[in-house]
Amino acid sequence: MLSLAMLSSFTSASSGDIVRSDTVMSYERMTSHIADLAERYPETIEYKSIGTTPHGREIWAVKLGQGEAAIFINGSHHAREWLTTTINLQMIEQYAKAYRAGTAIDGYDARKVLNETTIWFVPMVNPDGVTLQQSGLTAFPEKSRNALLQMNQGSKDFTRWKANAQGVDLNRQYPADWSTIHNNAAGPNWMNYKGAKPLQTTENQSLVNFTYEIQPEIAISYHSAGRILYWNYKTAPANLARDRKLAHSFAAKTGYSLVQPTSNPSGGGYTDWFITTFGRPAFTPEIGIKTGEAHLPLSAFAEEWKRNKGIGIWLADEGYRLWLSRNCNRAEQPLEEGTLTLTEARDVYSEPNFLSKATTRLSPQTLQAAAKAGNWYKIQTGEGMGWIYEPHPRLGTAAEVDASIELKQDTVFYEQPFDRTAEKGRLAPMMVQASKKWDDWYLVMTPIGEYWIEWAN
């Protein structure tokens, strides 16, 4: 018989926010915040490493939402610009909170937008550089310290540091007119050294590979400072009106000044590369007012967050429209097993996209789907045929099983399968008996009754 002692310590998610904006955002604090956010909001947040820096720090990517379209937001290419990491993390938390509550951000329905579009974040592109800027030489192996001192012109004060820990400016590394970058430092330096070749660094390689992987419709690379907005790098004439319209909206929302294109721009930046490679919109907002060769003060955050709070959710909505313009005629695929269980109310649309008309709303129930197109399922309603969006469909039915499962780590159990929002508790490592199976979900006996766990053998 199971006892309450077999439950691991479990505390329900606090209503207090996780992300701290009143303290220095170190690599360690960011990593802890990301893990805590994923645990609190499992229905919308996942994360993974997309690379490891030369000093062993993970470059974390955070996935927010369940949409078929994607946009990409990143921060801290430059070491001293770590307040942009806090901007990224605040977006993740506040948007996830609004998704769960069913509320809006700046007039945008967070649940609808994050079902349309997945927002990917890399909050800290340059973990080694940020750590050096904040903590100095003591955070690095002794064998590396002399080289770092030389790159900092002999100073032990790294407050001004922008580069990575190899003295390469990560926002001068991308293959967009790299050979003609202006004002290049002669060698590894605290700022402005573009490297010996494009994509020389692990950090830049990781970001480029990840961008190709997720294929974002729009990219936003946060920097500081100046309250200005870069939006055009040799933008193709066919895309100019589209990108200018978005840029003017961005400027209106933030109060930032648009940087007008010049005839001979200096390239090498992430958004320079993104615009010329993908032909899609990209923006480099510079938050805050520059106060010298140093990071922005913590006191600058509140105003910059106020200006940028809605940017991610707005551009996610715009990204969906761009994605749909290329994916509006997807072929329907018939379903062999069409039994579909809804665990929450769903709007029914006239076409398999969120911009079509919502014809009715279905309560939780089990119904039959005739076909699918992407994550959309075609069903019969009293209003005729319609489409519902299910990124994690519960197809088929649960099968009876009699199986013993060895849990090798603390395991969350839930009210329903496929629904990670209704956590009931956690089981410590132990053997449990399962009576039903549905894909990777098992109905098991816990000290407080039968509940579902997600378990992959």
From TrEMBL:
One of its GO terms (molecular function) is metallocarboxypeptidase activity. InterPro entries: ENP1_M14_CPD, Peptidase_M14. Keywords: Hydrolase, Metalloprotease, Protease, Zinc. Gene3D superfamilies: Zn peptidases (3.40.630.10). The active site is at 286 (proton donor/acceptor). Residues 23-319 form the Peptidase M14 domain. Its cofactor is Zn(2+). GO terms for cellular component: extracellular space. Transmembrane segments: none annotated. PROSITE patterns: PEPTIDASE_M14. GO terms for biological process: proteolysis. PANTHER family: PROTEASE FAMILY M14 CARBOXYPEPTIDASE A,B, SLL0236 PROTEIN. Belongs to the peptidase M14 family. This is Gamma-D-glutamyl-meso-diaminopimelate peptidase. It comes from Paenibacillus woosongensis. The lineage of its organism: Bacteria, Bacillati, Bacillota, Bacilli, Bacillales.
